[in-house]
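Figure S4 source data
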Amino acid sequence: MEKQLLKNAVIYTMDDEKPQAENIYIENGKIKKIDMNINEIPEGTKIIDMEGKCLLPGFHDSHMHMLNTGINLIEAVDLKSAESIDDIIKFTKEHIEKNNIPAGNWVLGFNWNHEKLEEKRMPDKNDLDKISTEHYIFLKRICIHIASVNSKVLELSLSDKKIQLENKNIGKDKNGKPNGLIYEEVINEFLEKRLSYTVEELENIMKKTLKLIAAKGLTVIQTDDMNFFSKDTDRLNILQAFQNLYNKGKLPIRIFEQLQISEFSTLQLLMKKREELGENEYFNIKTVKVLLDGSLGGWTAALNHSYADAPDKTGILNFSDEELYKICDYCYSKKIQIACHAIGDRAIDQILNIIEKIKEKYNNIDLRPRIVHCQLPIYRQIKKMKELEVIADIQPMFVPSDYELAEKRIDKKYRDNIYAWKILLKNGISLSGSSDSPVEDFAPLSGIRAAVERTTEDGKPLGGWRPFEKLTLKEALELYTTGSAYSIGMENIMGKIKEEYYADIVVLNEDIYIAENIDRINIEKILVNGK
């Protein structure tokens, strides 16, 4: 029986009944006592002096793409610092040379943002052909809803009868020919020509990536890894790789997989695999994810009005009402949570209308449906979200990254509740906090700072963007602790430093409530199940 007492620490429990504590007694992976009397310490207990460090419940990212993040970090070129298309060309050429990537191989890149390029346009096939016409060049935009490819990728992919040239998600030039820009689900169909990993290769990528994630203070992540592949065999391999790591005792943190699907047959297949795998303390599947619309950056988030800077565009919906109802109905019949990526108000309308019908059919069973992003809700939708007990899964780092873009894309008269974290809270909406990594940095402290300050790292805009939407530090911490635990129905076992909860703890080198720079605090270590 493992017993330990953590003492001499600044402990914030995130438990309103007892907000702070002086010590924590842990036994067999669970917290058994808060503020134990020194005379009550059981024999054989290991007493650990925390030397005044700050302890919090382990951070919990409620929505990221872990495998995508890992593949980017391990195999791809990061284009976030590119300020021009010439930079994109230069950085990618340097990546090819540095890694000695032979002609005929694929070259992956991510994080380009045309809003920050001096040309103010997206790189097309002509630009990428300047990198190489002998390699397959595939570069994703920062939002991961748009990608640029060179002529070699187009030639290979469009030779496949499955990928129809008239597809709305294949960009065209003024002559109606593919311009090298691809959108939404076509991205994975193109990538299918490149990406296929064995279960063992997936395990190795996961181990490396999870080590990096744990170093940022995360003890739990909810991750959508299905979005990176279009083949069902690859998706099944991902689930098996997670299970294998658990069986080998190699999962350093808790994983909750979100099964993103675009076809009903895939949903049925993955749910069968879920039943086969079962549940354990480190790897679970509690959520099905669907992508209802796109992104603001690509003008594909579905709006009930036109874009301010593109009057001919209102975005896209990826599912018909009938298709989405069928998926939601199946999920409720299997008692599994549904989470919908919905940025625009038209996409939010679609899912709220369907959830209302579904909940009525299933006698208001509480499966805590979620809207991931929920960036542009209007007042009637917020009221409906409260009525239907819909959770908003938000990404605080989107504010410093996107505020200039949002003001450009969305007319002033439609901005009442744009990135409206405080308004959602005030209206009783439960919030969970996440990074959407690799879209944003997965460091929770960066997200917490962004929620509190609503500025970039260099303090722009002065005073914070829409400062009335700033969260208190306590509210921001709740996003990544109690809020994320609630989002998957685990609020009675994780998210707090409390008796009978998992001993999942993050140790900081300074008190978060008095630190001058939240995202400059060092993560000393994490404990998962007390280890």
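Figure S5 source data
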Amino acid sequence: MAHLRFKALELSNNRPKVEVQSPGKISEFYGKDVFGLKQMQALLSPDIYKKVKKSIQEGTKIDPDTADVIASAAQSWALSKGATHYTHWFQPLTGSTAEKHDTFFDAGSGIEKFKGSALVQQEPDASSFPNGGIRSTFEARGYTAWDPSSPMFVYSNTLCIPTVFVSYTGEALDNKAPLLKAVEAVDRAATKVCQMFDKKVTRVKASLGCEQEYFVVDKALYANRPDLVMAGRTVFGHNPARGQQLDDHYFGSIAPRIYDFMRDFEVEAQRLGIPVSTRHNEVAPSQFEVAPLFEDINVATDHNLLLMDIMNKVAERHSLKVLFHEKPFAGLNGSGKHNNWSLITNTGTNLFQPSNSARENLLFLVFFINTIKAVYEHADLLRASIASAGNDHRLGANEAPPAIMSVFIGSQLTSVLDELEKKGNIKVEKGENMYMKLGIDKIPSIILDNTDRNRTSPFAFTGNKFEFRAVGSNENTGSPMAVLNLIVAEQLTEFYENVQKEMKKGAEKRMAIVSTLRKYIKDSKSIRFEGDGYSDEWVEEAAKRGLSNIKDTPRALDAYLTDKTRKMFAKHKVLNDIELEARNEIRWENYIMKIQIESRVMGDLVLNHIIPTAIAYQNKLLKNAEGLSALKIDNKEVVNIIESVSGYIGTLRKEVYNMIEERKRLNKVEDLRERSIGYCDDVKGKYFDTIRYAVDKLEMLVDDEDWPLVKYREMLFLR
């Protein structure tokens, strides 16, 4: 078996070099493959363009006649770009994207055709997508419906039309529809609050900048690791002597091969209007990050999924493989998808940006404090929104935020909130004096750099936005962002109602706002934490504060089905009970399958690769020991190694067969939640670490030339 490993190493070392040509100025090709407002304005009449723009900006519907005109223009534009097909590009509950291509060409007429009806709606086969029991397999009907707020684009000679995906009976079968509804909810609630300060605010948009971490390995070496191919992560592998302990990879010089890959995928991304702006080495060897500029949250989510697809395809050209798994290598940093979130008014105000106006800082505090309160009230749901088998490997490790939800705001903002909380009833005076008495006038001194960046916090304020750092690198951001926007919408709705009640009692508006905020500061104080989230002390402190520490996905998902959560989702018309229950069924089933795949890969590697290799090496040692004994030379050291190898072989046989039997038992459990907990506790919890320990020990005992799997030290230092 080892010859396959060395063949892979040889292929890696002798790979053909890919020439990457300089594309010129980004401004000359940025967005060239996007059918956006600029392209529409050039091809549509002023009246039609006005309707489309209004639909995009305000969410209004497009009538059939207008859709026909848009379809015709989109087809002409796409054909000029070399497109031959079109597809409704959607996000089923698999976590990735899906597409079914249809040709523009109509054989009957001999010309290309594209009607508005085909643009607005299609009927893909929905039977094989996850549905959580909403429909039977034989009920295949599902609909994709055009989302005008996210621009069409040409990719791989295909016009891609971003869409939502719903069942025949109307239930959402994707991640986009709930996100759009949650964004509408926060728009309504935030606009209502903003109009208490400024009647010119008529809309509030959620904004997102999504930092994407990832690993890159050589394609030939990847192919030699069945665990990477099947499970996306290495289930075995001894840490190399040098990993990330020197901190020399972070922000270091980018290796030429990786640099060429980055330049290549960035050009494709920029042509598709994805505003990638930052590239750098991350902490672990072979780990990197790409970050875009801020965009509308729906478009940003679409762009992140598209970017991941682009990266995968471009990597193939460079004989590389991108690993988006949250923890592909044990003992090294895992990967996250840091979601930088903010709210922006139609007047251009970032509601999380302190200003030079003391009066405007009260508006800032309203949104700042309500967001903290929302996280406090719905911490378990926020934790559930980022739950996955992959993220469970990462959360709480030495480089990722813990599973405990907390908010970091920095020492200066902490002092502002503490001061505001302690103030008693303030006599309202003319002018702006009340702001000074409240300490609100001090906020402008807090600039971006003064808020610091706490890498151990799952939810941190970073100057003019909140950074949700706990999201997994392989996840669709639509799910956690839907939850975040929804809980903030719920909290802002409650805030508005509480202020109105205070005002009906006779309180002046500003003081009604301040008294409500003071109560929220006090109520949510336990969620704020400024220290080291990695420490054992924080785990103990969090328990004292009553904060949850739900470490595994099966139990975390319970938060979606509480009465409190159900009522909130229904109130804002984001998901109904049937949809919530179906999604949990899908998540539990997905967790089971992920752990099952990892377990089966472990068993395959141990029984068919590791044990045969170890036995062969053991036989070598036995011959060596016999030879030494015949020569009357002390063979004690060789015997000790033989005993160690034999012991690990015995452990592996026993543990793998026991793990297989445990899987067989659990597969008979009908309840998905119960089965997923069993896979978590009785398969992963009982066997994974024990089996890995024995294999990794054998890796260090068996002769290097005999070991069948590419080792960490051979994969992680690309040049």
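Residues 366 and 517 are 7 Å apart (CA to CA). Residues 183-586 form a domain with the Creatine Kinase; Chain A, domain 2 fold (CATH 3.30.590.10).
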